[in-house]
Give the backbone structure.
Amino acid sequence: MNLSQRAAWIAALPLLLVVALAVLLPFAWRSAALAVDCARASECALRDLVSDAYYFKAILNTVWLSALSTLAALAIGGAAAVALAEHPSWRRASAVLANLGANFAGVPLALALTLLFGVQGVLRQALGGVGIVLPFDLEGSGGLLLAYLCFQVPLATLMLALPVQMLEAGLMEAAATLGAGPALFWRRVGLPLLLPSLLEVGSLLFANAAAAYATPFALSGTSANVLAVRIAALVSGDIFSNPGLSSLLALLMFVLLAGVIAGANALAHRLRGRDA
Amino acid sequence: MMRRTGSWSRLALALVVVLAVLPPLAVLLYAFSARWDRSLLPEQATWAWIAELVRTPRVQAAMVQTLALSFASALLTLLAGAPATIAARLVSPRMTALLDALSLLPYAIPPVVIAIGALQLFVGRWGGWLDLRAVYVVVVAPLLFPLLHKTLGAAMRQLDVAPLMEASHTLGASDAFLLRRVLLPLLAPALVASLLLCWVTAAMEFAIANLLLGGSIEMLQPLMNGMRNVNGHLSAALVVLSFAVIAAMGMLVEGLMAWNTRRNS
């Protein structure tokens, strides 16, 4: 028997079935129920969304938290990747630590940050003892941003290490031979060449932050006003439930994230094509 | 001599290390100290929390449940996903593109959305005749597939299968023979590595474990979260224990992949 296209598709069938059943079916079913409700104009969740600024705030919070943590992670992680490209001997240890940081999210991270920066947190107390008052409170947006940075920055470092390393090899030396300093090199050569990778990695970081549920939930419970927590609380919350609105928010989140990922990938593809 | 970019990149690296290391370090210290509320430094090193943890039946039960269910999910991912990734890489670039897109799906439809959808449809609607554990195992699998696809894909790129296939065709061997006698043995370490990777990832998953199983089957991550409010030291000890297991598995994965690279080169 030789492996034909048809046989390959048959081999892939179980996987496609699992994905269709576990991910697409519930998602489509909920979206269809939402569409039916709104077409009948009986209990359209769209009205709830428009009438309640709280949910708009959740969308806004999600977007700015994700965008800001992504931009900061790209800047810090990218710079760290440059240091790693220049110091090969640091790479292994740094990769291990960054891996730990990128995976230390959710409940463990919330526990750690409460220990350090909570109301009774040791760092908050110690800094307070010398007269420094931390400008954020852990349950608020500042705390969420700090938490997101704790896993986004190491993740960005991991994902950018290889693209930066491939760029650095030789190019910078060539630029230096021609008299270009590091600043000129990065502005005119390094960053433009790195842009496609930055876009791709950035879109995944953005989605990673927007999808984060465990971290905000463990830090401030259902009062964390970000999309992921709202989507869950509207169905499983004890106080009041509105499955239609939850479906609508999930749909909006899908459009937002799919748009960001597809857009960034298309742009990166075009930029690469132009350089080639 | 290479031109250095100066101190800012090293400063950024230091910041990365601080952000990555400070939280785990805090939890580690808390798990091994009798108390840490009076000063900047924890007091009295102790194994008591770890010892109490491993003796607690509730923790043992959650540990067993979590390891079993997450292993089932990882195994399902391997059994359903590996044939797809291997076949796609062998004969169909179009299918590879589709699988690449499927790997991005959990980013656009995140775990919390999957969990709520499953909760409403599989538990709310069809809960009467669907087993909750089975639902959990199937629902987690698509989240794990990207890990498998990436690990296995990298191993296959490294193998460079096209010449192998050509050679076996020239010698008159069928693809089934090539798969059984050449490819699968060569890919075995990568397959085991992806299984372990999927297993630890599933075991540390929170959203689906909490939303779908919460209330009926207690998993490690929700238990960890619940324990925070009762005894932070115990919760910290559980985090340390989990990450110790993850680190051990991670070393195993890395060892397997390194051995695979050496063997195949």
Observations:
- The beta strands of chain B are 33-35, 43-45.
